[in-house]
């Protein structure tokens, strides 16, 4: 039998909290064989990241206690001195983190940062280290690697920075790579590229991978074996196919049931609620039903025509304008009462700027926006204030949009009081009603944002958005930062609220599987333009534009039988929307594929 590269026995980790040791990981035991990929999966707070940091001994010794045995090639890492451990990190074991910008030093070039690993661990000269660094950058598919050696982290996109981190992790040819949520913050096509890259490099180097994630689609595509963690305990482990098809623990079944699967909406004409299972029992936590058919009004509640938003680029001594970011270019669509129109695309495609331009949180350069009878472009400050009673926004990170010094009750009632819609007593009653509506209890009004989980904070943000009885809600990546089961619950809440209040949603997201489930219509954006728009079924069942097809092919599918598949995704980055002064985009033509399904030609 092959000897494992990593053998973990009874790993337990505790943190010192208020003078008491609090256990967060209990009795973890597993092996990672040579060339094998093992995934540790679970939601926030399950203990999976603490497990990886414990293996690498990266927790503060004064406030943490790690017990058990971590055997790497016959040595117990927990028994090594700190000096010996430093020789192990980045040499025998390397780690990639979720956010590369926090792991890369902004004041050093990426070439210097990778070379440093080689000089330290492989005793190379500067010339040898430079040549090897360029080879590594080429290996992780960074175009013009030699030319980018002397560039800084801020000059790379998120996906390219993650490739730099992988190059650095591979520099000393480690036996084990620990990847902690390495694709969570990336767009779907970049995520696809990184997953393919890890698979290819693993085959070439014969490296073992410990992959930590909450994304079951990613687990299915990359892992040979899977460990499921729940509240600090290892609740199930086994071959990935076994876990996916015959998972026994209620939490495993709950996790899998909440995963949105691309293509699961075939045969459904209208948005459908996610099935949500109880993590303790594995039984349905709430009924699963198809949202009722909406009756669309004849007149749209929101009309956008030829919307243009550009940001000036200034340079030189006198800060003269030398170009412009064409963030939104000639975007037109209607949104009807009770309807969800989703704007999808990768970071930088202009979808969030479109949402902010409609509300005039950023000033559009041109075009027309009519919202609930208001000509948005002509409104003064008082007019904008009135208009914003009709349209509200839910942001991606509820913690940064809630005042930490204000109770959630005050945060929810503040818009109601500021707009003088009633007395303080009526505001309190309205707040209690809204908290109940979003699945929280009225007595939570006296608590502060830090006392809530991420999913609960997002519910509070939704309650605040509803305080003024808006007709339109712009949901900007409002579920992308949430764990899979919480994401399902919040999406279900939005669908329920739409039914009961006849809300119109402009749903901005890069998550194609979620978009497929919640949308009536879908608009795909690329470089500031809508390249395809139509009914959800038409766009997903019959995508026409190459970019729409590219987005869909990159979505991880929670099916372990696809593990050997390579998507063959292009390594190109999203092109830049920066244009020279005086540039005018060509006039676009659209072809009607079927009723209401339009695609950009050329």
TrEMBL record:
Gene3D superfamilies per record: P-loop containing nucleotide triphosphate hydrolases
Function: Part of the ABC transporter complex GsiABCD involved in glutathione import. Responsible for energy coupling to the transport system.
PANTHER family, A to Z: GLUTATHIONE IMPORT ATP-BINDING PROTEIN GSIA, TRANSPORT ATP-BINDING PROTEIN
Membrane topology, from the record: Peripheral membrane protein
Complex formation: The complex is composed of two ATP-binding proteins (GsiA), two transmembrane proteins (GsiC and GsiD) and a solute-binding protein (GsiB).
SMART domains according to UniProt: AAA (SM00382)
SUPFAM superfamilies (UniProt xref): P-loop containing nucleoside triphosphate hydrolases
Keywords for this protein: ATP-binding, Cell inner membrane, Cell membrane, Hydrolase, Membrane, Nucleotide-binding, Repeat, Translocase, Transport
CDD domains in alphabetical order: ABC_NikE_OppD_transporters
EC number: 7.4.2.10
GO cellular component: plasma membrane
Domain ABC transporter intervals: 6-256, 302-552
Pfam families in alphabetical order: ABC_tran (PF00005), oligo_HPY (PF08352)
Family assignment from sequence similarity: Belongs to the ABC transporter superfamily. Glutathione importer (TC 3.A.1.5.11) family.
GO BP terms in the entry: peptide transport; transmembrane transport
Protein name (Swiss-Prot/TrEMBL): Glutathione import ATP-binding protein GsiA
Reactions catalysed: glutathione(out) + ATP + H2O = glutathione(in) + ADP + phosphate + H(+)
Main enzyme class: translocase
GO molecular function annotations of the record: ATP binding; ATP hydrolysis activity
Keyword Transmembrane helix: no
Superkingdom of origin organism: Bacteria
Annotated compartments: Cell inner membrane
